[in-house]
Amino acid sequence: MSPKGKQAKPFSLRLRLLILVVVLLVVSLSLVGFALDAAFHKSNEAGLQARMESLVYLVLAATEVTDDGVLRVDDDPGDPRLGQPGSAIYAVVEQDGQHWASPSSLGTELPELAAVEPGGSVFTLPAEGRRFYTLQYGVSWELADGQMLPVTVSVIVRPREIRQEKNAFRLGLWRSLGATALVLAIAQLFILALGLRPLQRITQDISAIESGELERLEGHYATELEPLKRNLNRLLDTEKANQTRYRNALDSLAHSLKTPLSVIRSSLPADTPSKADVVQNAVSDMQRLIATRLQRAAITTRRSIAQAVSVRGQAERLAQSLERVYSQKMINIELNIEHGLDFYGEQRDLLELAGNLLDNACKYGNGEVRLTARPLDAATPRTGMTLEVEDNGPGIAEQARDQLLQRGVRGDERVDGHGLGLAIVLEIVSAYNGEISIGASELGGARVSVTLKP
């Protein structure tokens, strides 16, 4: 049968929590970083404005207007950057057509600025085509004759200075936040390891139960996991008790029926031998039917979590027994069994399954029999297995294979020469939610393939 579709393997709880923690760290630290960057930018601009105001006062202190209205400004206002060309800081003083610019503006095209009313100030940012930070102060100069002369003092700064400070701050900020994120991620890994340790322990113990190393959960677990431990142990105990009770009931039934059947057999009249033979055959059929039905019913009582049974050990026992039984046919049974392969079920089920298949192969083959066993999925702690039995006999006709595998039909009623062995095999395969198929073997005879699921 082809699979309907493979489902994606779910993430582990540890990986899921780790991804959530990393995403939360990245988002929160990014928001913090952007907020700090914006706050630093505003603070830096406010600091620049304060420094530009200091320069305005220096320029005002170096400015003088003569009685006849001539503007004079000392070329050295007190800040060496205003006298250094290319310093990116410039000062301009304007009064009714008179213009003075600091020596630092040499070779620089400064923007044209409008005059500011006396007592006013204007601070502008580099936006909408403006390439500079500008701070303008309007003052009124009183001449000797009492006339008020308006003067505008402007300080112009290129964004280069504040941009360099911003870049240096951003570099240090994101490095610090990156280091913080790394430390927090490592701390979260440590916290997750400690927090998930009880889950890891109970997972290991459940895997040990699946593999047959433990029968129930023992020891103390975290408070939150105690109800899980208690209910799981209760389920295991109940399953084991039900299995024992069912087996005991079957044994009691078999024992109870033996005595009445023996009485019937011994009470048959001897003077009517023909009728006695009929009743004797009926009683024998009843005994055989009871034994068979009891055996099939016992198969359906398999535990969902059973002890591991070594496949190689049981197969070697069967091979030795069958080679002695069919010694006159010189049977050679080849075993191809993967090392360490275990069967997670009842030991007698494995013996019945492999024994009946091998017995049929020995009976109808011509001396060569091969048993192959391998796991379904070696990655899981409790895996199923695939069992193949091949022979070099005449094989099974293709048109008869489907009829042989019809469930609920006795094997001895379907194909001549097949007794109840194949019917028992079908019951076991059905009990383990498995599949069975019949094909042709490379040896020349039949190949019976069985898949048992955990």
Fold blueprint:
Blueprint: H1 13-61, E1 63-65, E2 71-73, E3 89-95, E4 98-101, E5 121-124, E6 133-142, E7 148-157, H2 160-195, H3 197-210, H4 226-266, H5 273-299, E8 308-310, H6 311-325, E9 332-337, E10 342-344, H7 347-364, E11 368-375, E12 385-391, H8 398-404, H9 421-431, E13 435-440, E14 446-452
Parallel strand pairs: 9-11
Antiparallel strand pairs: 1-2, 3-4, 3-7, 5-6, 6-7, 8-10, 11-12, 12-14, 13-14
Helix pairs in contact: 1-2, 4-5, 6-7, 7-9
Account of the protein in words:
The chain is α+β, with helices and mostly antiparallel strands. It has 3 domains: about 15-165; about 225-300; about 310-450, Histidine kinase-like ATPase, C-terminal domain (Heat Shock Protein 90, 2-Layer Sandwich). The protein contains 9 helices and 14 strands. The chain has helices at about 15-60, 160-195, 195-210, 225-265, 275-300, 310-325, 345-365, 400-405, 420-430; strands at about 65, 70-75, 90-95, 100, 120-125, 135-140, 150-155, 310, 330-335, 340-345, 370-375, 385-390, 435-440, 445-450. The chain has a 5-stranded antiparallel sheet, with helices on one face. A hairpin with an 8-residue loop joins strand 5 (about 120-125) and strand 6 (about 135-140). Helix 1 runs antiparallel to helix 2, helix 4 packs antiparallel against helix 5 (about 275-300) and helix 7 packs antiparallel against helix 9. The radius of gyration is 48 Å and the shape is rod-shaped.
